[in-house]
Structures are given as structure tokens and as C-alpha cells.
Amino acid sequence: MDPLAPIIDRLHSEGRPRVWSLVMTVFGDSVQHRGGRIATARLARILGRIGIESGAMRTALSRLSHDGWVESQRSGRTSSYILGIKGRDQIAPATARIYAAPRQGPVSSWVFETTGTGISVAGGFVRPGNTASTTAKFAIIGSLSPQHRSEVTQSLTPEHIRALTRLTEDLSDISKMTQLSPLDALAVRTLLIHRWRRLVLRWPEAPNEILPQNLSVLCPHQRVADEYTRLSPLAETWLDSSNDDLVAMPTANIDIDNRFTASPP
Fold first, then answer.
1. pLDDT tens per residue, range 67-114
2. Strand-strand pairing, 139-142 and 37-39
3. 54, 62 Cβ separation under 8 angstroms
4. 3-class secondary-structure state, position 245
5. Rounded CA gap, 107 and 263, in Å?
């Protein structure tokens, strides 16, 4: 049995995968810290390991190229891609959020604002105090009682809870994966960050204090960081490798060592 089957099957069970989004995940996670260029053959190998056919990849790349997210290049017989202007403009701020360090300790201060972003509750928005907007028209800062924490939890949308549940299911499965090949480790890391990326960029932060208690994994942000750290050494060896029609990618820069260690933006 394929050791990656549980998380690959979960991705595909959610409907046809958004291949263009998976391509951007690969760029942010495996390309930008290695010179910003990836050979089409290497990208196809990564996506193929998670069940994406080459035709679907080519269609996604064509769309991304047309919209300015990526640019194609050719050197001799080697076809490759780099980020386009739109891709470069978008990936830096997204990367800072995706790879921010997990919170250390409980949230002691919360903010309720009538405008802004956060978890929608009681006609306003609730979020941790250290992420509060300085431009809000009205804000209340304080602690949350157990009853109010429960009310905030109940205000999480069904889609947000579903995204959290699928992340924790993936984490539970990934924690059992051992003795992976380098390509397997990279594929697992890609799927983990793809899941995490979609959660972080779409939904407001839900710290541990307000997470639903029935999740299969507690402290998911910390667990993402831990599994990422565990998988990365082996995953990076595949990006270093040269075999068949693949040329080794440029040496990784220091950026990868800073992932999940920087303070949240």
C-alpha cells in the first residue's frame, strides 16, 4: 500500500484538485529558496507523486503563465519555470504568514472590534490582542471567560471547522509515516504545506483556546511546524539530487532554516 495514500486520497476526495494552487505551493515551499527556478520535469515528478497528471499540470501552467503568475524559460532541451511579476508580488507576504512561528503559551489578551478581521461574532470580530488593528473605529481589549471562549468557538464557520478538521486528520496520518523515500518526504511536505497554506490564507487565526475540542490533533500550528522540521532534511535531499533527466537544483539558502521560527506578522 502507498504510505501516502491517506493524505493523497483526502485531497482528491474534496473534488478535482486546484492544480494551479498546488503549483504555487511547490514554488513557495521548494523553489524560491533554491534560486527560484524549477525544471518542468522535476515539477511533474513532484505533482505526479501526489496524483496529478502531466496534462493537468500543463493546463495549470498555461493558465498561470497567461495571468502573470509564472514565466516559462528554455535552455537547450530543458524547459523550466520561474515566478512572474504577479507571483513575486504575492508570494512574499503569503510566505511570512505561512511559515510564522507557532504561538508560545496561551493568549492572555483578546480584542473585540466592530470593523477589521478576525472571527466574526456578536456583530464584530474577535482576535488575539497582539494582532489587533490600530485603525479600528472601536475596540475592546480584555480576557475571555470560558463561556465567551465557547461562544467564539461556536462562531467558527462550518467551512473553517472543516478545514481545521482535515488539517488535523492529515497531521495524524503524517505522524505515522516513517522510512519514507526522499521524494515521498517532499510530496508529504508539499501536501502538508498546501493544506496549511489554504487554511492560513483564507481563515482568521483560531488559537488553541478556541479550537473545537473534537479535533484529532491539538495545537495544530505547532504540529505543522514539528512535522515540517522532521520531513525537511530528507525532502531537501531529493531537491539536491540529480538522476535520470533531472539536474540538481541550486543549493538551498538560509531562508529554509528560518521557517516556523519568525514571529507572526
1. 999 999 988 788 999 999 999 998 988 998 999 999 988 888 898 888
2. unpaired
3. no
4. coil
5. 14
Q: Which domains does the chain have, with CATH numbers?
A: 5-103+157-258 (1.10.10.10)
| pLDDT tens track for 224-254 | 999 999 999 999 999 999 876 888 999 998 8
The number of beta carbons lying within 10 Å of the beta carbon of residue 219 is 17
Contact assessment for residue 146 and residue 130, using Cβ atoms and an 8 Å cutoff: no
Alpha carbon distance 215, 234 (integer Å): 29
String of b and e for 56-89 (b: at least 16 CB within 10 Å)?
A: bbeebbeebeeeebbeeeeeeeeebbbbbeebee
Amino acid 240 reads D
Torsion angle in degrees (nearest 10) through CA of 190, 172, 50, 77: 30
Q: How many helical (H) and strand (E) elements, i.e. helices and strands, does the chain have?
A: 9, 7
d(CA 247, CA 144): 54
Residue 52 contacts residue 22 (beta carbons within 8 Å): yes
Phi, psi of 17 (to 5 degrees): -60, 145
Which one, of 85, 49, 51, 46, lies nearest residue 65 by Cα?
A: 85
Q: What helix, strand, coil percent values describe the chain, rounded to 5?
A: 55, 15, 35
Q: Are 30 and 186 in contact (CB under 8 A)?
A: yes
H/E stretch holding 62: helix 54-66
